[in-house]
Amino acid sequence: MAWNQPGNDGQDRDPWGSGNKGGNSGGNKGGRKRGASDLDDLFRKLSNKLGGKKGGSGGGDGDNKQPFQISGRFGVLALAAVVVVWAGSGFYTIKESDRGVILRFGEYSGIVGPGLNWKPTFIDKVIPVNVETVREQATNGMMLTSDENVIRVEMNVQYRVTNPKEYLFSVTNPDNSLRQALDSAVRGVIGQSAMEQVLTTNRAFIRDVTQRDLEATIEPYKMGITVLDVNFQAARPPEDVKAAFDDVIAAREEEQKTIREAHAYRNEVLPMAKGNAQKLIEEAEAYKASVVFKAEGEVASFAKMLPEYRAAPEITRERLYIDTMERVLSNTRKVIANDKSNSMLVLPLEQLMRGNNNNTAAPKTGLEPKVMNPNTTNNSSSSGTQPAQQSSNVRGDTVRVGRQ
């Protein structure tokens, strides 16, 4: 079909709006009006379909503008609903034990704390990482000791995430890497220890060395985790020698029991011995102090007596002599006789002292005190008669006290 057909009253059907007659301005104007009318017809038909109305060719300008306004409002409402849904989908909550690692277009952006937060959907991604829970990795297996024995060892490590960024991005699988590092550290320490030490005495030492080696191994990798503790769970010998090692362990326990009993006895006796030693030391100190004070007192007394002795030597000498003899003879069994007297007392001192100690009267043994004449005594002694016998029956010392 041709664009320009005859019989159309000089109007062409040029889609570009140019006519055969008239200038370009008239043709373009008519083309623009025609294009706007067609666009209005298109919107009117679309609004009628959406509104359930059947459109016709009639109608004024109001009928053409109302569908266009309705369609514009619908688009704005739809866009607002999309924005609200997008904004609402950005709210999220981080638990108290977690920290959120933010990825913006796949790149690390920061860390958010626990609580309610917001992120732009399709732009940011948040990965929660638990930083409070104590995690655990274990290893076990048959291991060779330094004395070429094979034992089965079981160990586990307790750790916690302290840096979420390093935990997620420094190592591909930090948990598996930690388990492999633990297995390597355990085998290295067991390989340097004897079998008996691993099974009995050096378990605590092996655990400490393993933890130190494990921390030194994972430090360069910056895994973002902190090792809390390494537990030495079990160490067993092979089944073929298990009975012999059970006997060794039983003997070791008996030894420890005996040592504990010895320590208990030492703890019981040692304080008592220390107390007695301290008592003796204090008594010696007290005796030392008493002797020193007594000596100082005697020195002071002598210093006071010296001027008196210089003033009256004879009187002072006599008084000192009497005081000294009184002090010396007060605690001895002696018979005191006076030279100026013509008689002497012969006393059974041991029997008298024994009677005083028993609080009873002295028995009558025929050795009662007798007054004897010294002259007679001397005569009798020369003849070896009765006085000599009486003297043999007296068990005491006779001291003649007097001054010439």
From TrEMBL:
Signal peptide: none annotated. InterPro entries: Band7/mec-2_domain, Band_7, Band_7/SPFH_dom_sf, HflK, Membrane_HflK_N, Stomatin_HflK_fam. GO terms for molecular function: peptidase activity. One of its GO terms (biological process) is proteolysis. Gene3D superfamilies: Band 7 domain. It comes from the Bacteria. GO terms for cellular component: membrane. Residues 1-37, 355-404 are annotated as: Disordered. Keywords: Hydrolase, Membrane, Protease, Transmembrane, Transmembrane helix. Residues 384-395 have a biased composition (Polar residues). It is a single-pass membrane protein. NCBIfam families: hflK. This is Protein HflK. It comes from Providencia stuartii. The gene is hflK.
